[in-house]
Write a structure and sequence with these properties.
single chain, mainly alpha
Length: 206
């Protein structure tokens, strides 16, 4: 039977220094970047946020930005019309409801436009060192291949199962490791199975 400690040891071996690959300098930049990352890559998000946050270096300037300009800047990330509106609404709420700060408050975060549990978990984990596992496409795929979750499980079920499976472990660290493992090793297409230390547990190879 697979043990969580065995997975942790392997992930520590191949990903000893896991970290979020989204680029940010300010708390709200991480929040906006994570919202933008839905259905696209961190690499593409970083490409647009470098332009976005340079042109609009504060919440106040973002608040004054035209919707058309935001749309033009973030076009490469897809669903840009909705995401541009989300940026405007997030900025407005941060300025009016939380004194321009991203709070350590899940309920508030999940009330923001375009912010769901995954985005909230990423923010809470990275800004406040909360032990959260955010279930993105990579975490979902790895969890199902390793049999921690079932194919039909949704993100809430997967998160709950991961929390129970890795109980007592450093969930914040494991979250980043699972993301990076799925992104670069256990890929959706052409996963690197041959030299994988978890291959014996993988349903894809069973």
């Amino acid at each position: 039977m697979m043990k969580s400690s065995e997975i942790v040891l392997y992930l520590d071996k191949i990903i000893p220094n896991p970290k979020c690959e989204l680029e940010y300098d300010k708390d709200y930049e991480l929040l906006i970047a994570t919202m933008l990352s839905a259905q696209t890559t961190d690499k593409r998000v970083n490409m647009v946020t470098r332009i976005l946050f340079k042109k609009y270096p504060s919440l106040e300037t973002l608040n004054e930005a035209s919707l058309d300009d935001l749309i033009e800047i973030i076009k490469p990330v897809g669903t840009f019309n909705k995401k541009a509106i989300n940026i405007k609404m997030i900025v407005k709420d941060l300025l009016e409801k939380s004194e321009g700060k991203v709070p350590n408050d899940r309920i508030f975060l999940e009330s923001l436009s375009g912010v769901g549990r995954k985005t909230a978990n990423v923010v809470l984990s990275n800004l406040f060192d909360e032990d959260c596992i955010a279930v993105d496409t990579h975490v979902s795929r790895v969890s199902k291949r390793l049999g921690i979750a079932n194919e039909e499980d949704g993100v809430y079920e997967i998160e709950d199962k991961l929390n129970k499976f890795f109980r007592g472990k450093k969930l914040r660290r494991i979250h980043h490791q699972l993301v990076l493992f799925g992104r670069y090793n256990c890929k959706a297409i052409k996963p690197m199975c041959e030299n994988c230390g978890l291959k014996k547990y993988c349903k894809k190879n069973s």
